[in-house]
Amino acid sequence: MSRIVFFLVPGVHLLDLAGPAQVFSTAADFGHPYTLTYVAERPEVPSAQGLPLVARTDWPALGPEDLVVVPGWRTGTLADSPAVADASLKALADHHARGGTVASVCAGAEALGRAGLLKGRRCTTHHDVQDELASRHPGAVVVRDVLFTADDRVITSAGIASGIDLALHLVAGRHGPAVAARVARDMVVYARRNGHEPQSSAMFRHRSHLDDTVHRVQDLIDTRFDQPLPLTGLAAAVGVSERTLTRLFGRATGLTPLRYQQTLRLERAEHLISHGATVDAAARSVGFEDARMLRRLRARRTPVSSVSSAANARSHSPSR
């Protein structure tokens, strides 16, 4: 079980807090055990929007699998940010030193900077205070105009709603993109990645259509892409013929259901390989009987940008 601790500072923005909290809470509803805890230096914390929040004042015991999130707060400049006690900054630094992950939303990056966690690391914050963050923490590598950055278990996001993107990124990293896509769909938000990167997951690229039948089939494939999924069963699950499903799926996504499933398998396998898995182990993990199919798919893989461009062209072509 992973504990998600939100460290609340006076003047906290509600969406900075509620966005990531909703992501992890929804993931917990889908069977991924997260415990959400709210910590502050005082038991009642005023929010920027006027709603008072209640928090505990003692830090729970944390392990390497746990996450601490610092939501941002209302401030004209980072220099005018609310004071954060040395003990709280030490708690942030100590958690990271023990192997844990620390994240921030918006102005929350200032607290990470004060805790010494931004030195030598890529980071970002709200565009209004990016220059000030770089000035106040010269050792930080401030990346502008991205939704979030991740560097050695220090994850920072831009303004307010980008905390949702940050949390979805973490869920995808821990549980796979299918879970992140399901959480995003349940929250009725876009499943986005970093602002300067392409929408590299097929789950995200091929979800911009409005065909509910195809979305339901994609839900089935997303959650069971590592299992055999005959077209007959998929069609029966949504109450249409195989021919109709193939036609609808192709019109909405530019792919057949099988090609979509293979794309998910390939992308998940690439993620596992990039994190140290062998090709054989990755192939088994994503449902291939042996590694030969995975090697063939990798050999003929189309660059993501080309696939995205082709899909976009199809989505804007008139129906025939």
Automatic annotation (TrEMBL):
Chain spans, region Disordered: 300-320
Keyword terms of this UniProt record: Transcription, Transcription regulation
Coiled coil: none
Pfam families on file: DJ-1_PfpI (PF01965), HTH_18 (PF12833)
Source organism phylogeny: Bacteria, Bacillati, Actinomycetota, Actinomycetes, Kitasatosporales
Name of the protein in its database record: DJ-1/PfpI family protein
Compositionally biased region (Low complexity): 305-320
Database matches in InterPro entries: Class_I_gatase-like, DJ-1/PfpI, Homeodomain-like_sf, HTH_AraC, INH-QAR
Residue span(s) of domain HTH araC/xylS-type: 215-312
Keyword Membrane among UniProt keywords: no
Membrane-spanning intervals of the chain: none
Keyword Transcription regulation on entry: yes
